[in-house]
Amino acid sequence: MFGFVSLVSAVILLLLSSCVDPLFSAPESALISELPGFNGIFPSNHYAGYVTIDESHGRNLYYYFVVSEGKPAEDPVVLWLNGGPGCSSFDGFVYEHGPFNFEKGVSGSMPKLHLNPYSWSKVSSVIYLDSPAGVGLSYSLNKSDYHTGDLKTAADTHLFLLEWFKQYPEFLGNPFFIAGESYAGVYVPTLAAEVAKGIEDGLKPILNFKGYMVGNGVTDTEYDGNALVPFAHGMALISDELFQEVYTACKGSYWNPTNLSCQDKLARVDWELDNLNIYDILEPCYHSPEIRSAISYQSRLPSTFRRLGETDRPLPVRARMFGRSWPLRAPVRDGRVPTWIELGSRVPCTDDEVATLWLNNEAVRKSIHAQPIEQIGKWEICTGNIEFYHDAGSMIPYHKNLTLKGYRSLIFSGDHDMCVPYTGSEAWTRSLGYQVTDEWRPWYLGDQIAGYTQGYDHNITFLTIKGAGHTVPEYKPAEALAFYSRFLNGASI
Ligand SMILES: *[C@@H]1O[C@H](CO)[C@@H](O)[C@H](O)[C@H]1NC(C)=O
Ligand SMILES: *[C@@H]1O[C@H](CO)[C@@H](O)[C@H](O)[C@H]1NC(C)=O
Ligand SMILES: *[C@@H]1O[C@H](CO)[C@@H](O)[C@H](O)[C@H]1NC(C)=O
Ligand SMILES: *[C@@H]1O[C@H](CO)[C@@H](O)[C@H](O)[C@H]1NC(C)=O
């Protein structure tokens, strides 16, 4: 039923649309009108809510959609996925490339939100999706859905996209990209394969899918599993002698050691790396506020060294804490992926305080159209509530198929990440056997080298970001926005 006012405004909008902007028919009920902690003017429209992908189960995926602050009618639409499995894409929204920088409140009060000058919404519209159901603010009324895996997650996310573009048809013609990080190294290519197949099968609506991006992405048990030892050697974390010994004992293959002396040497490597921050070897990794202050107090390091690896975000709010995620050299293998709790820790070195406070505030939940805590429980940055199976195998055949179909791809790596080290991503991209079309060279932001890149035939590019850790835009926001916009534009990076 249309009320008078909305009819009048619809007519006005229609009139306007013919000469100014295209008519945005996005669901009005999803529009966000205010956000606790933010007192400024929204630089573009934000929408958020649920898309039901299975009525009978009550399976609902939550999205937060930031319209481009540039030219929304033309700019690409990018789906962003954090990994885990089990981690919420609010990690990206709050800590990496979202429209706001969150300023920590004093003694546990609510954070203040400031506009992020390096938001990816400067050059694209971004959909932050919590996936699969059970993660972040997404949920199902039938808990059997929390037993899931790569293939079901990709199929569900594809359903989400089809339904989402039905609700936001004005964005259907924009170039569409899929991007993500870490375990999304599996989500992105598996979803891209579904999307590509949907397009081939003529599934409506037809998505204008152009390509994808993966950052420090889990890809292949063997390549990722063999990446750590050469990384540790190159980064001066293990000695030349130990490297020679472990190389000889393991014959250069570390991912599945059977030889006892190889296992022995690898244990020594692990021991030497044990207390590093796995997400950025330059950064300290802290237990708790007490230890944090004790360390900085006692540190004999010059202050410039103490600051190595710190983020250059204007408001760095994420302190780092002690602990680890994937045990070292435990690449993602076929079958059930252990939960964070089973790995014996919370998400390591990662403080999620600001996001946890904000997303578990009922006024915030209401304003971002999320279910209240009593309905779906507390928001956690990474959940142990889902039972997740890695059932899609290596991603290399996916990348082969997608690139041969003409989709563009960017495989980027923060070069100081030890969780999914760049050495593995560099090796598997090279292993595709495509001709090098842009030989290894530095890439720049302004007059500074921001990292290195090698481009291949079939539009697959490998790129490092110098000095960045696992979550690249968190450490290097300006560099990240630079390569992101160049890639989306189809420009050389
Ligand atoms: C949940 O889904 C499973 C699988 O479809 C079904 O067997 C079961 O009956 C459902 N449970 C409820 C409570 O609807
Ligand atoms: C393990 O590998 C080393 C080096 O190749 C070799 O000398 C040794 O005999 C092997 N040990 C076993 C138990 O196979
Ligand atoms: C790649 O494409 C081939 C041929 O279309 C298909 O048989 C195969 O299943 C695809 N593999 C993946 C992983 O998508
Ligand atoms: C690479 O991408 C460009 C721009 O989208 C396109 O014109 C070109 O055909 C692609 N090359 C290959 C080998 O797919």
UniProtKB/TrEMBL annotation:
Q: Does the keyword Disulfide bond apply?
A: yes
Recorded GO terms, molecular function?
A: acyltransferase activity, transferring groups other than amino-acyl groups; serine-type carboxypeptidase activity
Q: What EC designation does it have?
A: 3.4.16.-
GO biological process: any one?
Answer: secondary metabolic process
Q: Which UniProt keywords apply?
A: Carboxypeptidase, Disulfide bond, Glycoprotein, Hydrolase, Protease, Signal
Q: What is this protein called?
A: Carboxypeptidase
Q: So which residues are the signal peptide here?
A: 1-25
What enzyme class is recorded for this protein?
A: hydrolase
Q: Which Gene3D superfamilies match?
A: 3.40.50.12670, alpha/beta hydrolase
Family the entry assigns:
Belongs to the peptidase S10 family.
